[in-house]
Amino acid sequence: MQSQQDSGIKRQIELPWSEAFKMSMKSIRIRFWRSMITAAGIFLGIAFLQTVLTTSAILEGIGEGYDEMLKLRQSWLVVMSLLVSTVGVVNSMLMSVTERYREIGTMKCLGALDKLVVKLFLIEAALTGIVASVAGSLVGMLGMLLVHWIRFGSRFGPAFADQLGRLGSNLVLGIAVGSVLAILAAFYPAWRASKMPPAAALRSEF
Amino acid sequence: MATAYEYIVRTKDLVKEYTMGGQTLRALNGVSLDIKRGEYISIMGPSGSGKSTLFNMVGGLDKPSSGTVFIDEVDMAQLDAFELAWLRCRKIGYIFQTFNLIPVMTALENVTLPMIFAGTPTDDAIEKGIKLLQTVGLGERIHHKPTELSGGQQQRVAIARSFANDPAIILADEPTGNLDLRTGTEIIELLRRMNKDSGVTVISATHDLKMIDVSDRVVWIRDGQIAKIEARADIELKVGTMDGEQH
Ligand SMILES: Nc1ncnc2c1ncn2[C@@H]1O[C@H](COP(=O)(O)OP(=O)(O)O)[C@@H](O)[C@H]1O
Ligand SMILES: [Mg+2]
């Protein structure tokens, strides 16, 4: 048998991130409503997280009823809201990957490396995660600020001013949590799908 | 440049077993087959005889339980992920019964995708994509999505896509299986024409007897084994009596 060197079989090149980014953008645009469903899950979770954080900040600023019991309840709510958004994100990412098994199989037949498949889903998840968590954070925070403004009237202004820095960092926290959750949630299903032999991915019916 | 070996594909004692619910099923049971460069070969056999399984092994889409597939005398099991991806991208073009176009992409985007994977600059890929779509008679439909095309047209897009990186081998799994008689004949003729024009080796799994007319050789498989291999010259004499043998 001949040696492998003169077989003419070379190594597939890796597509740069920029090319993967273009493909992901296209995919999100074309599947706009599908992306919106994924985004909605993240949006709701992060909006809820933000309402809890905002309430806690404003109450502290006003110096009202902020005892240990309430603090405990707040932390509990934060944990719950994070769980809610995690479950939502993982679920929608799982769905968006599994319904595209066939497409993943086809892309691998056409020469896509496993890495590219993972990259495409991670970029999609990151973009969706960022947009949804920015929107969720803003809506959650602004909505809650409005509620407290109505509730506390003139006492709201000083409390708000006092807590401005903390609200700002909450905003950043919410966006970071949403985006990181989206990426983490997409990673496992995307990685698993990318490892499937193309024959198995192509056989799946969706 | 690779040396031009006489046999572009060889399989040796290929076995594939599937285990489901504790039961083991031998989909391929010792298939040894040599395919010459430039040949048009049909793998004929009834449903469930192991054609798709063989297609998957030869195409590097799944791993055999035992036995070897050589592509240009290279043992496919020795290739790493990068080499395997290169092989699928540049050396083999795939055509499926269900077309398997990417539904969210236009005809042109589907055809350019393998070229993007190969690192072809976008402009060159688009130019070549348009040319390929014209070759398969879809020059007017390059911006249509798969859902806006008929079955026959979708299969033409798939054929154009399979030729994107000038492969040495076209692997087709029941390419006419979802098409009506006339469209099926057109697709078969298109494949034959491209085989003649570019010298590409065509390996087609099928139970469509229309394929016999254009094949250089027909490999009959049954229960995962090769029943017989016939050259077309031998078949033509008795093609009239073939119909009863199909199922
Ligand atoms: N992934 C799989 N898991 C279990 N059995 C399979 C799988 N793929 C194929 N088979 C079985 O292997 C046999 C051959 O199948 P296949 O190669 O698809 O035949 P053909 O393409 O000739 O119709 C059939 O009995 C089929 O049910
Ligand atoms: Mg089959």
List descriptors.
heterodimer, A: 206 residues, mainly alpha, 8 helices, B: 247 residues, alpha/beta, Rossmann fold, six-stranded mixed beta sheet, 7 helices, disordered C terminus, binds adenosine-5'-diphosphate, binds magnesium ion
Query: How would the global form of chain A be characterised?
Result: elongated
Mean pLDDT of chain B: 92
* Portion in beta strands of chain B: 25-35%
Widest sheet of chain B: strand order?
A: 6-7-8-3-9-10
In which range does the helix fraction of chain A lie?
Answer: over 70%
Low-confidence stretches of chain B: 241-247
Cα distance, first to last residue of chain A?
43 Å
Low-confidence stretches of chain A: 1-5
Q: Would you list the SSEs of chain B in sequence order as H and E?
A: EEEHEEHEHHHEHEEEH
What is the H level of CATH, i.e. the homologous superfamily of chain B? P-loop containing nucleotide triphosphate hydrolases
Annotation, overall tally of beta strands of chain B = 10
Number of individual domains of chain B: 1
Strand tally of chain A: 0
Structural class of chain A: mainly alpha
CATH architecture of chain B: 3-Layer(aba) Sandwich
Q: What is the percentage of strand-forming residues of chain A?
A: under 5%
Describe the structure.
The complex is a heterodimer of chains A (206) and B (247). With 206 residues, chain A is an all-alpha fold. Chain A is 82% helix and 0% strand. Chain A contains eight helices and no strands. In chain A, helix 1 packs across helix 2 (32-62) and helix 2 (32-62) runs antiparallel to helix 3. In chain A, 41% of the residues are buried. The model of chain A is unreliable at 1-5 (pLDDT under 50). Chain B is 32% helix and 28% strand. In chain B, helix 3 packs across helix 4, helix 3 (107-117) packs parallel to helix 5 and helix 5 (151-162) runs parallel beside helix 6 (181-198). At the A-B interface, helix 1, helix 4 and helix 8 of A face helix 2 and helix 3 of B. The structure holds adenosine-5'-diphosphate (ADP) and magnesium ion (MG). Magnesium ion binds at residues 51-52, 173-174 of chain B.
